[in-house]
Design a protein that fits this description.
The chain has nine helices and 13 strands. It is an alpha+beta fold and about 375 residues long. The protein has a domain of about 120 residues. Strand 2 and strand 3 form a beta hairpin.
């Protein structure tokens, strides 16, 4: 059952699932499934949020926030969402394209001397957005923690060059997000995290989403430790705890945000509404044509399809969303006005796919 936590902001008021023709027993089965994952030691804990027709039909937690301290996982906890940061970085770049300050066919080599070489010169912004630049995941030449600025990392990647010819294939890589973040910084004269804060988080009122962490932060008590398996014993290891500083001294753009299921649900709903901002006006982050392009399929691999820094599914019903490597995922199904989130801090486990499939069976129309 849910544990007490920070007061819940009812952006999406709770409702009886039967009012929306949903089966409460099937929804309860999703909680039971997550609890079974805990009982079988497949995850440490999980928080689940399902919103249908802008109303909350499920918001529950199971398991632990801190396994060793026996601290239950509480609703409205703050998570390291890792690669779920990518849609924010992509949006910051798309906003510059919408404003005519950057183009899809712009080339990083126009801005970064380290990319002005035979290997990188042809790479375009669109290839960065769609993971077709040729860089492999974790194919960068220096440890990220050894550097002090994002631009240093981007320059090192440019000097090395991609592992594959640009434009030939979809290859998911954090390098694409590094470069997009550095481009936003170069054009605006402000760090990418400042642009995300000012132009996205503040305008949407996402007060539970943060671009940096320190143990003294007033919301630090809501943070969860993160866990991964010991390769030798298979036991869970707490590899980061909120009493530690964050791992990097800079915002890496491919990851780095801290957020809640509630805030990320609002982010998905914003995109379902064409990036329309809250309030009576029709102000938007992006124009509708760019939104449509961003949520269209531009590449795919065995893990699925990809748009402009969003994961997408073009088959009906179309979906979009993203996952994070510390065990978080969020999906939106616009045609059903449905948002589904499943956040753990259990790295490397395979429960996400199993839980999402179960959620679809519980929620799909007859």
């Amino acid at each position: 059952m849910s544990q007490p936590s920070a007061p819940e902001k009812l952006y999406f008021p709770k409702t009886d699932p039967t009012d929306l023709d949903l089966d409460p027993e099937k929804l309860s089965g999703l909680v039971e499934l997550a609890q079974r994952f805990v009982d079988e030691d497949r995850i440490v804990g999980a928080e689940m949020l399902i919103i249908k027709d802008r109303r909350t039909v499920l918001h529950e937690t199971v398991g632990w926030s801190d396994r060793e301290a026996r601290k239950p996982l509480a609703c409205n906890s703050v998570y390291r969402i890792r690669s779920m940061t990518k849609p924010f970085t992509g949006t910051a770049a798309l906003m510059l394209i919408d404003e005519g300050r950057l183009r899809l066919d712009s080339r990083p080599a126009e801005f970064f001397p380290a990319w002005d070489n035979q290997r990188c010169r042809s790479i375009t912004v669109e290839q960065l957005l769609t993971h077709k630049s040729g860089f492999e995941q974790e194919g960068w030449p220096v440890p990220t923690a050894s550097l002090s600025r994002l631009r240093e990392l981007v320059d090192a990647c440019g000097e090395q060059g991609p592992q594959h010819a640009p434009g030939e294939q979809f290859t998911y890589s954090d390098v694409n997000s590094f470069a997009l973040g550095a481009l936003v910084e170069h054009i605006t004269g402000q760090p990418i995290e400042v642009q995300i804060q000012k132009r996205i988080l503040d305008r949407l009122g996402l007060v539970d989403t943060h671009t940096m962490f320190e143990p003294e932060a007033p919301w630090a008590h809501r943070m969860n430790p993160t866990y991964q398996r010991d390769e030798g014993t298979g036991a869970w290891i707490k590899y980061w705890s909120p009493d530690q500083e964050q791992e990097l001294r800079y915002f890496r753009a491919s990851g780095g945000l801290y957020s809640t299921v509630g805030d990320y649900a609002r982010w998905l709903v914003c995109w379902m509404d064409g990036t329309r901002l809250p309030g009576p006006s029709d102000d938007r982050l992006l124009s509708q044509p760019i939104v449509d392009d961003a949520l269209s399929e531009h590449g795919a691999d065995e893990n699925g399809e990809y748009g402009y820094h969003w994961g997408v599914q073009s088959a009906e019903p179309t979906t979009f969303g993203h996952s994070g490597s510390d065990g978080t995922v969020a999906l939106a199904v616009p045609s059903l006005d449905l948002v589904v989130l499943y956040f753990t801090q259990s790295r490397g486990e395979d429960t996400i796919t199993e839980w999402l499939r179960a959620s679809w069976r519980a929620l799909k129309p007859d």
